[in-house]
Amino acid sequence: VRDVIQQIIFPSWFTQVSSDFGSASARTMKADEWHSLITVYIPIALVSLWGAGTSHTSDEVSTHLRAVLDHTMELICPVYLACA
To answer: Which of the two ends of the chain, N or C, has the fewest CB atoms closer than 10 A to its terminal CB?
Structure first.
């Protein structure tokens, strides 16, 4: 997920997430960084990794990852609406 997130290019005014987030050496993230991560970065990363058109080792794995993606998006939508 970090590799995908590092490749995403956003405008300078958008709240950027540190490229080393989640590692032991990373600094503590601020609220606006968490918001950007959860509502923008993670959905883009997961869709590019698990969405339609991606390849996986088997159909079962593909189906499982697609279900995880769908559930993750269902959890992100209320967060987005609550913060809008």
So the answer is: C
In a domain, 69, yes or no: yes
Q: What does residue 45 show for φ and ψ, rounded to 5 degrees?
A: -65, -45
Whether 2 is covered by a domain: the verdict is no
For residue range 5-40, list pLDDT tens digits in order. Answer: 888 888 889 888 887 888 888 888 899 988 889 888
pTM for the model stands at 0.79
Q: Which residues constitute the domain of residue 69?
A: 57-84
Q: What is the C-alpha separation between 60 and 63, in angstroms, rounded?
A: 5
